Amino acid sequence: MRRTQDLVKNGLVKLRNQQDVKDTEDPELQCPSNIDISVTQDITGQVVTWPTPNATNSSGGVTVISYPESGATFQASVSGQNDTVTVMAADAYGNSFNCTFLVNVRYDVPPVLTCPDVSQETAPGESFATVTWPDVVITDDYTSDSALVITRSHGSMIANLQYDADPVIVTITAQDELGNIGRCTFTVDVVDTEKPVWSACPANVTEMAELGTKSKVVRWGLPSVSDNSGKDPIGTNNPPASQLFSGGTWHMVYTATDDSGNTGTCEFYVTVIVDDDVPEFTNCPTSQVRFNSDANTNSAVVDWGDITATDNSGTPTITSNYARNQRLDIGSYDLVYQARDIHGNVAFCRFNVLVIDTEAPGFVACPDSFSVFILGSQPSVRVSWTEPTFMDNSIQGTVTAMPSPGSSPPGSQLAPGEHLIEYMAMDAQGNTASTCSFTVNVIVQTDTIELDGELLLDIVHGIDGQFTPTIARLQSLRDDLDDLFRISSSLAPNFVGIEMPASIFDASSNFKIQFRLHFSNPSYYNEEEIKQAFYSALTDNLNFATTNTIVPESFNLGVREFRGQITLRRIVSSPTTEVDFVTCCGDPTSTQYLALEARIHENLWSTFRGLGNFRMVKSLRFRSGSVVVPFTVTLSDGSTATTQHADTFFANAIDGSSLEWMPGGVSSELFLETVSPPNVLPITEVCPSSFECLSNGGTCTVNYYNDVFDHVCRYDC
């Protein structure tokens, strides 16, 4: 309204009298659009014009004015001032309307280029790269992108640019429509960031220390290195490929640096293990391993299973002092297993294997009950026997059994009566067999055969020469003789006892004893057999088991002996069976021979027992075929019987018709060949001990196991 008043005041609008104003409508006015003008930077102000805005009014006559007016100079600036221009339209009646628009005069600046920083890495494995870069960003405040004039020193790429080439300078310019020029410059460079590459880099190495040491010389293959630059790397660290390492883990590094400062490494670890760990047994028995012996053997095949061990260095070597499935005798065995690893560490597994005997022993031979004869004057007698033996699977051969507690051992003095002897068999493991028992019956024998004799002793109880025959020494001699005949000699089964009625010293200071032997009645021996039994029981035919020693060949019996011979042609062993002459008599130990010998002894005894001072008979070794039986008849030396008496006794015992031998009229079923020579020889007397000379091949002794048929005794030799 004020602007309108100013216009009126200035005469631009002439008002009519108020009485004349009839138009109240404001004019219509259309302002120009905002005006933007770009100028170069050398212009400080710009005259700006615009057409007069068009204004209309119903009353017509509209006046339009602008402020500032068109053609005014506007100040230029970088961003423009955005000056406001006001346009007003007024009619004659004072109605008005105004509008505004902006005038902006600004400098047109050169295009702005934003250049990149271009640094390209080399192509993989190569020393170069093809470098590209993005489009440069160009902005301009006036000129459109399409109107800009752009120039480039290089295109949008550089091919195969080496990393070690000088950087390339790239310049780009842009000119706008007003001729303003903008430019940017950047550097294109290829850089090598690729590390040197190691080939054949060793893998991690693990070695065991040398045996007995804590170190190891470790070797490996040398790696090689290359670089994409094609040049040898510099600054290379190259450890030797053979070094002595102590126990532990060592980090090995090969390094190589190229001329761009890139460093490549080859890294691995060397480990030297010092093995101080001993192997470990996995199943060592912790208790005794027991096996029963195999039946009827003293051993067992034993197998305690596989003994195994482990070790950190691999499977150890296992040895042992006994092998599995080995046959071991009964007993205890300390087994030692040894596990040794490759570094000499040793572990031991120790356990005991026991082979147990559970099998009871068995007696091989248990003595039969037997009787021992003694004289009534003896309070007791020393009795011996062959002790029973037993076999056991745990023992090689046989073993002598032990008497049971309370049972008498061999060599004990036993009084008359029955004595139960018991033995037990026990092996080392305590297994026992059934008891072996037998009875020793000590019988006082009153009906005995008495044979008198004498003996010279050179040493009695270690005393050589003169000594006093004390009762103790005499008893010792009697015991020696009793033991000799009862225990040591072949006469033991029929021996009853010995008496020593007298003793004297002879002219040579030898001790002469007179003795009387007692044998059970009947007994079948002769003088020579008794002598041989006596001497054989002595050591070296001289020494008793004690220190008593005899004078050689000084044992004599006071007896007479007759000698005869018969020939049997028929021997009946049962009512229907006859003895085979060919097979009956070849073996003197055979059952047939012994049975026939017993029959002959009984008949000889019955035939000659009536002779005066008769003592015993003995058949000598007879022969097969028609059985030839030589025999002896022993009488005391005081007997008055003659050989004719003996022939008569024998003739009376033969049945004249059948020639059966029938002493006392009792059938013997033994038949003679004839009763005449040579089948029956006349009975002759064997030379007494005073006869020492022989003629015609005769003999003064009778050997009970040889065939001796004739002898001639002479006093005048």
Automatic annotation (TrEMBL):
Sequence intervals crossing the membrane: none
Protein name: HYR domain-containing protein
Source taxonomy: Eukaryota, Metazoa, Echinodermata, Eleutherozoa, Echinozoa
Keyword field contains Transmembrane: no
InterPro entries hit by this protein: HYR_dom
Domain of life: Eukaryota
Domain HYR: 22-107, 191-274, 275-355, 356-444
Alphabetized PANTHER family for the sequence: FI04643P-RELATED (PTHR24273), HYALIN (PTHR24273:SF32)
Keyword annotations from UniProtKB, A to Z: Repeat
